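Aim 2, interim progress: modelling of the zinc ion-bound target.
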Amino acid sequence: MFLLKVLVEHNVFALNNYFYYCSLKEVQKGIRVLINFNNKELYGFVVESKFIDSDDINKVSDDLGLNLKFIDKQIDETPIINEELFKLANILSKRYFYPLIGTLQTILPKSLRPKKLSNISHIQYEYFYKLHDDQIDKFKINNFEKKILNKFSQIDFVPKSNFSQSKSLNSLIDKGIITLEKKEKYRLDIEPIFDYKKQFSLSEEQAKVFEEYKNSNYLVYLLHGVTGSGKTEIYIKAVENAINNGQNALILVPEIALTPLMISRILSYFSVDIAILHSSLTEGQRYDEYRKIKDNHARIVIGTRSAIFAPLSNIGVIIIDEEHSDTYKENESLCYDARDVAMIRATYHKGKVILGSATPSIETMSKAKSGVYKLLTLNERYNHAELPEIITVDRTKFTNFPSFSQVFSYQLIKEIKLRLLKNERTIIFINTKGYGRSFYCRECGHTFKCPHCDMNLIYYKEDETLRCNHCGYKIKKPSTCPECGSKYLSYLDFGIEKVEEDFKKIFKVPYLVLDGDRTPKSSQISTILSKFNKKEALVLIGTQIVSKGHDFDDVTLVAIVNADSLLSIATYKASENAFDLITQTIGRAGRADKKGLAIIQTSFKDDNSIKFAINNDYMSFYKNEIERRKLLNNPPFYKVINIEIIASDADLTYEVAKDIKNYIQVSNENLIILNPSEPFWYRKQYKTNLYLKCKKISEVETILDEIIDTYKSKNNILVKINVNPIDY
Ligand code: ADP
Ligand code: ZN
Ligand code: ZN
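Predicted structure of the complex, ligand included:
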């Protein structure tokens, strides 16, 4: 008989314990089982299986202090998670203070989670006839049969659907000359939407960087290359290097919108099998892609954040493109950072990690400068393409803007018209969603706020609503002010809907929109990008999505219509993010032989982020920013830990936060711990944030484990930990 150590799926922390069951058969680690738990049927996950003598069962029961029961059913035949990913789950669970079972849930695709069995994810097959030519000579073949065999003149496999049932067909099957075969069918069609030349040779600067990469032995490389320097060419060579060594490669891009481009570039160069993983695949497609990787059919995996958990074996290189992106950090459930996970996985496989960016995060650059990571630099744009000329337009001078638009300055209108005339492309970047950034009364100044979060409501014209982008609160746009009854209500600052409206009015030409709110699906994004690529419209208006990575030739104008909204964000990373976005957006222009122009409309042209971005001076920005971080005890000098306290009672969250703060202070007086935030409304409950700063996570590990332990059995309160949150 076998004694099984089982993790039970349940969302409350109290069940993050092991339970023991027995089974007559051995059940391998990593297999899901159905168990009876307090008269409830639950799914469990076997983490250990040990042989015990049937006679010893009473003794074992006594030792464990429980009445051992049998499992109800074994669900999988083979383990659904391999040794490496299981080890990884253990490491991540500790590192991010999250239950092991929840960590496993995050690592596995939905259809394989130890939760419930999904009925959609079954394998689909395609059927083919296969020719066995060595059998032909053994039989006499008649003319009808010959006709059928002619279909095999070029290929060995012919789809079953190409044949209709006939006597001759059956006769060939009976003789064993052709056989019916099935092949697993993958539901996702992976096709390139952009054309790229198959072959290229590296420029001198690129070749030097690649040699440095190949001939050194670091775990992590930072590839710092200005926009348009050909970082992707280096990635491709690094992937090729791994493939040639018999290893596999994993490539992460920061958002779904950038997968079509990376897929096109990889497909044009490699003939090996590729798998794709991102959140807009259907459950069936994801299951197929996952299996393709797990069964060693795919050599290269391309995906967004969670693809870092792809069950790829023998990983030679993990590439993280635009490594500075916030999207690599998960902020719900298991709050992992894909870059950290990459390093753990690469260590296991003795592979390498390449972090690539034109604007590396301050943390990453500081590690590269101190020699922990190997710094590789590309200073030139490929083909010596020039960086665009940059013009700033002062938003505070109303003479810069026509009376009919506060979005498009005279200068911007002129330059866009010029591009339309010359059949060249323009990208317009706007950071703000909706129509107006905040909604207020022009008579008494009353500002409409979210009753739950106290955040300014955003005005959306498409359905005449005011919405809170924080909690999802939404109301019809009021027609009078609740304070003074005035009808004169207005909005402050504009969002993408307003940009579109003015564009239509002024230019009267077709345009395309990429808006995170309205085009979330990868298929929609591909369609829009491919239309822009074919010049079906010469203007692309968009939020963040348009700023990154895209590579269209003859985009000769980019416009940041309101850089102010980038500067008004209150997190420690605000200037870094503003610098990144401006630099990246400018980098979209003038990538081929034509020189580009970037127009930045702002009220603060002397702000550091804007100034350094305009001068394309990352290193000076870095020096300036790292000084500030040091002064304010922010990363990379300190780790920030967010302790979230969530409950349906606002006061309770605050009281608990104060208790936790006191407890931490008593345990270690050297830690920096901030006052708890006011409780705020969050997903139908209240939340209070507590921030803690330490030099090393190891200083606080025990304390945090104790805190989690203390609150995990309390039903009315949830305490969660987020290491290095992005919204601090
Ligand atoms: P980055 O990612 O650094 O912004 P890309 O990799 O997109 O830059 O390269 C910019 C452009 O230059 C692309 O169109 C790319 O195909 C081209 N390019 C870069 N390096 C080479 C090369 N060695 N041979 C041919 N084209 C190249
Ligand atoms: Zn009013
Ligand atoms: Zn709200």
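The longest helix spans residues 650-667. The longest strand covers residues 40-51.
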